[in-house]
TrEMBL record:
InterPro entries associated with the record: ConA-like_dom_sf, EMP46/EMP47_N, Intracellular_Lectin-GPT, Lectin_leg
An example Gene Ontology biological process: endoplasmic reticulum to Golgi vesicle-mediated transport
Biased composition (Polar residues): 242-264
Name the UniProt record assigns to this protein: L-type lectin-like domain-containing protein
Length: 423
């Protein structure tokens, strides 16, 4: 009796744990990065198509760089090849944005129809009519970063419209240069459509329409580098392992009726069925724990890699700061020597012997100045005395003019006294 109660309690505990730990199913065809790797060969992303304008987006083992950190005016896009047929789903999107102090790029998550042909590499500001939902992440409004939601039924041309007035929900989020990844979750249930940022609700609305997922990024003159680390699409596990095990256990608890002669055999078979069900559940729990352990190991390895990068960056910064410190130390030593020299000069000035030397120097300068002035005066007097007198020069000019006038008068008189000839 005690054993049957213990088995029943253990089964109830395992059943409740299985129902609580039941997780959604990841759609491998529409997801990447959920297992820690984007692409095994850094060339193809299974189920996705990558394209760009002005450059080729870079594929790495753990991320996709849609826009580079250098040279602006670049575009990158990533679109799922197959549309999503599920009506309830959840998207886990991890990204990072780095750039200069005043970056002006934008990042969009799309859930639209015919996204590869109608949206391609466009942003929310350059896209034409689209049918579905768009989540825009940019520096709109100068508030350090915003996340806004847009809905369109295919009739509104966003390229020729006032995009800022078309958002139906938004929240502020400073996403640039955080030094960590940012998590965006988009959840669609039977009745609601919800957006969460770092596990906090941003906005919620009615159910959105669309069937294809995509991500686009654009950078302006001041570039922003947008890096995508994970895009995981999961759907509810409607036929989970836990519920199946629980139903099988109920079926085993109600075996077909048999004659009373085999009552003892039925009592023996029920514990055996319960034990087999316990083994199944324990095996399932063991698999789940192994999954958690592997995820923890992967997380630990990522933390170690981040710690290694942080140490390397610290060493680089320290190596860069060491020459500056030496230069500052040398400058401080020079300033100290200059201060010492000034103090010694002040002490010497206060010394009487030095004051007497300054006085003698001043007297010698005065004597030199007076001797130079006297020499200049005597030299100028000699120059003035050696020049010819101006009166003599004037007298000579007047005498020449008088001689000329006298000669002219004599000439006239002689001509007048000459005999005149008459014809």
């Amino acid at each position: 009796m005690v054993r049957s109660w213990a088995i029943t309690g253990l089964l109830a505990l395992v059943s409740s744990f299985a129902s609580v730990s039941q997780a959604d199913t990841i759609l491998e065809s529409a997801s990447f990065g959920h297992n820690g790797r984007i692409s095994s060969d850094k060339r193809l992303i299974p189920g996705w198509q990558l394209s760009g304008r002005g450059h080729v987006p870079e594929k790495m083992s753990d991320r996709i760089i849609l826009t580079p950190p250098h040279t602006g005016n670049k575009r990158g896009s990533l679109w799922a090849e197959q549309p999503l047929a599920e009506t309830e789903w959840t998207v886990d999107f991890d990204f990072r944005a780095n750039g200069e102090e005043r970056g002006s790029g934008n990042l969009q998550i799309w859930y639209v129809k015919e996204g590869r042909t109608k949206v391609s590499t466009s942003s929310i500001y350059t896209v034409g009519p689209f049918d579905g939902f768009a989540l825009a992440i940019d520096m709109h409004g100068g508030r350090g970063g915003t996340i806004r939601g847009f809905l369109n039924d295919g009739t509104k041309d966003y390229k020729n419209a006032n995009v800022d007035s078309l958002a139906f929900g938004h929240c502020d989020y400073a996403y640039r240069n955080l030094g960590r990844l940012s998590l965006i979750q988009i959840k669609q249930s039977k009745s609601t459509f919800e957006v969460l940022v770092d596990k906090r609700r941003c906005f919620v609305t009615d159910k959105a329409t669309g069937n294809s997922f995509g991500v686009t990024a654009a950078s302006a003159d001041t570039p922003d580098s947008f890096e995508v680390f994970k895009f995981a699409v999961s759907v509810p596990d409607k036929a989970g392992v836990g519920s199946q095990s629980y139903r099988s256990y109920e079926n085993q608890q109600v075996p077909p009726k048999r004659p009373n002669t085999n009552g003892n055999q039925q009592q023996q078979q029920q514990p055996n069925a319960g034990n087999s069900d316990i083994d199944t559940r324990l095996s399932d729990l063991q698999n789940r724990f192994q999954t958690l352990v592997s995820s923890s190991e992967r997380l630990l390895s990522e933390i170690q890699a981040l710690s290694k990068k942080s140490d390397e960056r610290h060493r680089d910064i320290s190596s860069q700061l060491t020459p500056n410190r030496d230069h500052a130390k040398n400058m401080e030593q020079r300033m100290q020597r200059i201060e010492t020299m000034l103090e010694s000069i002040q002490k010497d000035v206060k010394n009487k012997d030095l004051q007497n030397q300054f006085k003698k120097l001043q007297d010698s300068l005065k004597n030199s100045h007076s001797g130079m002035m006297e020499h200049l005066q005597s030299t100028s007097h000699q120059l003035l005395s050696s020049t010819p007198r101006m009166g003599l020069f004037i007298f000579l000019i007047v005498a020449i003019q008088l001689a000329l006038a006298a000669s002219y008068i004599i000439y006239k008189r002689r001509r007048a006294n000459m005999p005149k000839k008459f014809l």
